[in-house]
Amino acid sequence: MTWLNRDVISSLDFNREDLMQLFNEAQEMENYAKSKLNILDGKIMATAFFEPSTRTRLSFEAAMLRLGGRVLGFGSVEASSVAKGESLGDTIRMLDSYSDVIVIRHSLEGAAKYAADIATVPVINAGDGTQNHPTQAMLDAYTIWREYGRIDDLTIGILGDLRYARVVTSLIQLLSNFKVKLRLISPEILKPRRELLDFMNMRGMSYSLHLNLNEVLSELDVLYVVRIQRERFPDPVEYERVKGSFKVSPESLIGVKDTLIVLHPLPRVDEVDHRLDSTRYAKYFKQSALGVPLRMALLKLILKGD
Ligand code: NCD
To answer: Catalytic: which of 57, 105, 146, 295?
Structure first.
């Protein structure tokens, strides 16, 4: 399927061929992530962020500016007329008439799809609810591909909040296009939801569930860590029970493969020790830096075509 004018709502909308095209384009864009192109001269990207964001919004903005386009939008509910009671639908209608592409983040599941149904311009989901954050998953998979030159035949551990972290669902959906072994590690109450397990079974993915990182650490090529999503817990008491229950530090990485890479979508709270940052395993800052070329590739493919 061609990328031109395509919405980006869920990882499930993209197959291996789409992803390889995106990754090759992103690798090309790495040459220009600190300079200026004029590929999207005259185009405008609107950002509608109804939830906090640092990396996703700013890397989308940097990507658009590097491509020669321009950006407008808001970064919080307070900064928009939603604070006066305007509906999501009306807000999207306005942005649709002011821009060529809309990037949206929202706390409600399905908000991006709803926006895409209203808008005539392409809509990109920058995270909605607890299930979807497809461009983060693309970035995560791209980082793995750049580090290893492939994704197939890798053993990937995902540690943390496997229940409420939308990056986890989107990443697993995207990885179903590749032949990987997944090791899913979390406290009991943060295990993946039934739907995600059903999805992995349906796609014939190789995975196992664990309570303790040590059970799988020595076989991992990638360790992907995600914070406990405090704001998405229905019950604060439940959060208190699991907070601080896992932490990756230089000491905890004993017996790992030399080539292990540790990824994290960020922000981190306390699940990755800051002393890990200076070790060769830490790739999470490189991962967030790759957000610019990856999103440049995405915007170019959607607004300009293949
Ligand atoms: C993620 C998100 O918003 O879901 N952040 C991001 O985009 N890098 C992950 C998180 O908040 O933990």
So the answer is: 105
Backbone φ, ψ for residue 41 (5° rounding): -50, 130
What architecture does CATH give domain 134-288?
Answer: 3-Layer(aba) Sandwich (3.40)
What residue owns the CA closest to ligand 1's atom 7?
Answer: 56
- Tokens 């750049």: give the residue: 146
Encode pLDDT of 86-145 as tens digits.
Answer: 899 999 999 999 999 999 999 999 999 999 999 999 999 999 999 999 999 999 999 999
State the average pLDDT for the chain: 96
Distance CA(230)–CA(107), nearest Å, equals 13
> Cα(76)–Cα(82) distance, rounded to whole angstroms?
9
Kindly state if the Cβ of 265 falls inside 6 Å of ligand 1.
yes
CATH number of 11-132+290-304: 3.40.50.1370
From CA 173, how far away is CA 177, in angstroms rounded? Answer: 8
Residue 84 designated active-site? yes
The C-alpha atoms of residue 173 and residue 14 are separated, in whole angstroms, by 9
Report the C-alpha gap between 68 and 59 in whole angstroms.
14
Determine whether the shortest distance from the Cβ of 263 to ligand 1 is under 6 A.
no
In whole angstroms, give the CA distance from residue 250 to residue 228. 20
- Could you read off the pLDDT of 219-264 as tens digits, one per residue? 999 999 999 999 999 899 989 989 988 999 999 999 999 999 999 9
Query: How remote is the CA of residue 276 from the centroid of ligand 1, in Å?
Result: 20
pTM of the model: 0.97
- List 133, 163, 283, 300, catalytic entry: 133
Q: Quick check: CB of 227 below 6 Å from ligand 1?
A: yes
Which pLDDT score is estimated for 72?
96
Q: Could you give the CA distance from residue 15 to residue 230 in angstroms, rounded to a whole number?
A: 32
Give the separation between CA 10 and CA 2, rounded to whole angstroms: 16
Domain boundaries of the chain, sorted by first residue = 11-132+290-304, 134-288
Beta bridge partners of 182: 156, 207
